[in-house]
Amino acid sequence: MLLKACQCGIQYVTRPKTGLELSFIKSSFHNMPCVAAAHFLILYGSQRGQAQSIAEEICQQAAERGFTADISCLSNQDKYNVDSEIRPVVFVVSTTGDGDPPDTAQKFVRKIKNKSLPQDHFSSLHYALLALGDTNYANFCNGGKIIDSRLQQLGAKHFYATGYADDGTGLEVVVDPWIEGLWDALKKTFSSMATSNQQGTDLRDCIQDNYHKTASDQEKNKSDLEVDLHLLKLSEVDSQKGKTITSDSSDAETLSTTLVASLKQSVPPLSESALNVPAFPASYLEVLLEQAPKEGETLPSDKDGYREVSISKAVQLTQDDAVKSAILLELDISEQNIAYQPGDAFDILCPNRASEVEELLLRLDLQTQKNCAVQVNLLKNSSKKAAKVPLHIPQNASLQFILTWCLEIRSTPKKAFVRALADFTQNGSEKRRLLELCSKEGSADYNSFVRDANVCLLDLLRAFPSCLPPLSLLFEHLPKLQPRAYSAASSSLQHPGKVHFVFNVVEFPACPEHPARTGLCTGWLADHISSILRPPGTVPASEHLGTSALPKVHVRPRPSSTFHLPADLSVPVVMVGPGTGVAPFIGFLQQREKEREANHEGTFGDTWLFFGCRHKNKDFLFREELERFAHNGTLSHLIVCFSRDEPDAVGTINRPTYVQHNLRLHAENIASILLKDKGCLYVCGDAKNMAKDVNDTLLEIIGNELQIDKLDAMKTVAGLREEKRYLQDIWS
């Protein structure tokens, strides 16, 4: 595909191949099986849709490249059989939790981990694997690594190097070139398979036929070629004379000094470049709006594990002048028979903001139809492989309900979505900019102005007013509105029938790409409980309200498999939790306090808590409770630091600023607990900075204590993880 300059702006045309390119195609396909034989399988394991989306993109591109691909989720084991698969297989696998494969891949992993399988079980399998992960978390890409490693152990062979894509820096940085290189790897694989099957001559004849047909078709369409790659520059079109005039270097230099790149506009060299853009993603949904009674307008019910519970208490834990506002909520679960342990989390359902839903409806000219019942069907004859109606979109619910509770309208649009939006944009310069943002050449701009800026669909529609996508496009590209997870900050021994959790109200300041806004769930919760919110030290008004008057939320428990106190009470524990990361440790300490009260003669290991915040008198969360734990012996060592407070005495200029600094000051104790006493280390909080810094400090402590280099220290830390004695509950 190529952008073509025309009087009305920029439009999209198919560009015939040049003779040189046709020769390249001819040589590339020499010895490759014909289209019917170039058949491979794509299997994906996805937790939140990323891996599925990438797998579908590979499937779509395969058809354009002359291949035939079947696609299936790893959970659908009745749709494929890797044990006897002779076609090449491409795996796309994400990572979830503490380095685990996604839920949809768990059954497959258990199957291939069967110890009775012989070492040559997959000796006939040729595969490639793309692993997705986030370097902000431990065990990067471990979901894919688990599958990759086991397949290798059972005799499977790579036909293409494994890719490791990092969501922390942008999946597309690795995904795009990995997919680009996949096609040559597949050609070589099919060529090798053809040679081994002695089918080379017939297959070459097949390709020659396809090649000559392609060359004939391209020659027929040659008259459509109006602008070639070397002519696609920042240009003006003289429509009367039919000439393309390319801006000279001095013009471009002047332009680059006066313009600044933004979401809405680019600067040279991107604005002058030919663009390599993704193909238009295949449409596959038909959305009908009917004036009919709505059905299915209910939030997830018991079958999804959710329960509606009252918020019985809401307390602001920080002072009004603190940098961030932290709020504690108490949920009444006494009538719901919900059991949990300290260290578990709870999923909370939150809606999209009503104001944003209304703006979206208005922008799409659908405000008068918001109460219509929605019927979603598959398009007949869609070219999308394995297309299906998304399960998270209920049939016959109102449009307003679906946009409020089912689709994540705040999600950052992926490049495929941006590419699709471009085709529904009327203004030529706006369309060009959207194509730049989804192009290979515009990756830096996409990262800066879309991904890193947390731009959402509404932001794009505001920036590009001539873009008017159909509703079906939103249903195809907007992901499911996911619940938000919060760690329990209580113990049911201390608070029977209740569960507490703590959150900071996330704020996104205004920037050129979007207006000021709060986090989707934290902002909604803050508004939702505003009527019962009380500052610290006051009696919550909710204690005087009836249950019916209290705000309610839908929650479900999210048990942790590992992030719990040791079963052996004598095992020492070290807890690192700055800010709201202290939440699960409040539950730990409440539990330990009750266990000590019930077992006066028991032996209890030491408990260390490393806590940090900005200001001692503004955001020292749970200060009174932590000091009580320290006073009664529940907490053996409370080590705190305040990063923004001024030194309060001479000689404290080198005082610890962050939790990792205090860990270093107590390095000998930490090393002894972990290496000699077989204790446990728990870390909770920010993944991007704190968790990395704590991990680096731990490597330093162990390296110094054991007098070993960094590589051996890393192996020791990996051993702690394997033994479930170094555990993290972190987020980015």
TrEMBL record:
Residues 40-183 form the Flavodoxin-like domain. Residues 304-566 form the FAD-binding FR-type domain. CDD domains: methionine_synthase_red. PROSITE patterns: FAD_FR, FLAVODOXIN_LIKE. Its EC number is 1.16.1.8. It comes from the Eukaryota. Keywords: Amino-acid biosynthesis, FAD, Flavoprotein, FMN, Methionine biosynthesis, NADP, Oxidoreductase, S-adenosyl-L-methionine. It holds the Pfam family NAD_binding_1. Gene3D superfamilies: 3.40.50.360, NADPH-cytochrome p450 Reductase, Chain A, domain 3, Nucleotide-binding domain of ferredoxin-NADP reductase (FNR) module, Translation factors. Its cofactor is FAD; FMN. InterPro entries: CysJ-like_FAD-binding, FAD-bd_FR_type, Flavdoxin-like, Flavodoxin/NO_synth, Flavoprot_Pyr_Nucl_cyt_Rdtase, Flavoprotein-like_sf, FNR_nucleotide-bd, NADPH_Cyt_P450_Rdtase_alpha. Coiled coil: none annotated. This is Methionine synthase reductase.
